[in-house]
Structure to design on (410 residues):
């Protein structure tokens, strides 16, 4: 494999963002399983979002999907960063794009349907979007 | 590969080495971007994403009013009816009273009712330490442009259920079947289904609801709550100490135990 120039910086940042997303998803899942609202601090909205019907999909907490997704994404990012595996980069790119679509939909639900913003969910969405943007740049540079 | 020992250290040198190691003929004849799988991945993932999103919008968008008369969800932790006393539950001489101003349409009230209160029932109500009293604060329905106020109607149904000694089963079933706000979750047909599931004499219950006096009572108690400073749901009060919003079982438990231990509370 060719060790393309931006791999180090981009790999680190992508992995860090994927792990940040994983941490948030694990926290939200733990709060859900414990039956307690996520701690929002002075910002309100987490309780409303967590209690809404959209917090589960087919009876499964949405946070569980987030945990699974972030684990796979983090593995792909690490594989590219540490092993220069180009397939892993493309996997991260595809997963990231799916993640961006998913968080865009969930953010739409928060703003326009539930009428409340959960800062944890917003943080997760930000990590996914920025992570995917980095992945897209890295993939473009790698393939160019 | 033995090339590894000669990997150029700077970015420019690596790029130069890559150019050198590449195949100039291929680079000239075909744009390298065209060989990239990015476009293919974007197309496939984007296409699948759009299809899945459309499915979700149809599935979740249809889970409100259109599902109103479909099968109801059973309460996960039904309130022990033996401890019920109208819209209160627990011994009348319990040292601590938790008053709750609630709205059947409020999602956080739903979380309080389905996750926190059942734990409090087990830990404090059953042993006789706590009495929980529910009050109406029917705010959410006012956000609807419809003349049918789902918060008020659900609350009225609860009062008529209380007339039959079954407020708590009704509230358990109602909160277990929240489905959006002002979207038909508490349409008359669905409330009737809930009343049936809660074990009420439905004809008597319907006659009670039809008089409109229960709705007036809900609105009156809501006005009293507003006058007393309640402007959000759920609002709670433990022996006079006001708590706005949801709290964990542990947090409420600490307040309950403190109130029970205090001379005025005990």
């Amino acid at each position: 494999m060719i060790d393309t120039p931006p791999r180090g910086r981009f790999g680190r940042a992508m992995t860090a963002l994927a792990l940040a997303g994983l941490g948030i998803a694990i926290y939200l899942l733990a709060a859900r399983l414990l039956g307690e609202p996520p701690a929002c601090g002075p910002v309100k909205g987490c309780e409303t979002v967590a209690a809404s019907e959209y917090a589960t999909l087919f009876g499964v907490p949405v946070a569980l999907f987030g945990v699974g997704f972030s684990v796979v994404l983090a593995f792909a990012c690490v594989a590219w960063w540490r092993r220069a595996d180009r397939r892993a980069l493309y996997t991260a790119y595809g997963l990231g794009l799916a993640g961006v679509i998913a968080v865009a939909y969930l953010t739409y639900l928060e703003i326009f349907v539930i009428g409340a913003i959960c800062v944890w969910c917003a943080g997760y969405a930000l990590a996914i979007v920025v992570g995917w943007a980095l992945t897209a740049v890295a993939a473009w540079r790698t393939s160019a | 590969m033995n090339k590894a020992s000669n990997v150029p250290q700077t970015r420019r040198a690596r790029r130069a080495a890559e150019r050198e190691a590449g195949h100039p003929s291929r680079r000239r004849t075909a744009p390298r971007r065209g060989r990239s799988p990015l476009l293919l991945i974007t197309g496939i993932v984007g296409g699948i994403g759009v299809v899945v999103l459309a499915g979700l919008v149809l599935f979740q968008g249809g889970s409100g009013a259109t599902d109103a008369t479909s099968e109801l969800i059973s309460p996960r932790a039904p309130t022990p009816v033996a401890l019920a006393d109208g819209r209160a539950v627990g011994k009348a001489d319990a040292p601590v009273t938790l008053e709750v101003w609630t709205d059947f349409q409020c999602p956080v009230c739903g979380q309080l009712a389905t996750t926190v209160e059942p734990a409090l029932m087990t830990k404090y109500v059953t042993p006789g330490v706590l009495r929980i009293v529910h009050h109406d604060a029917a705010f959410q329905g006012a956000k609807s442009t419809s003349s049918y106020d789902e918060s008020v109607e659900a609350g009225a149904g609860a009062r008529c259920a209380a007339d039959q000694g079954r407020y708590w089963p009704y509230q358990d079933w109602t909160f277990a079947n929240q489905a959006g706000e002002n979207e038909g979750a508490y349409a008359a047909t669905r409330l009737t289904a809930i009343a049936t599931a809660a074990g009420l004499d439905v004809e008597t219950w319907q006659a009670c609801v039809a008089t409109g006096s229960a709705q007036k009572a809900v609105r009156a108690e809501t006005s009293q709550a507003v006058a007393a400073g309640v402007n959000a749901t759920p609002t709670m009060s433990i022996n006079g100490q006001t708590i706005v919003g949801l709290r964990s079982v542990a947090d409420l438990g600490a307040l309950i135990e403190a109130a029970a231990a205090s001379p005025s509370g005990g």
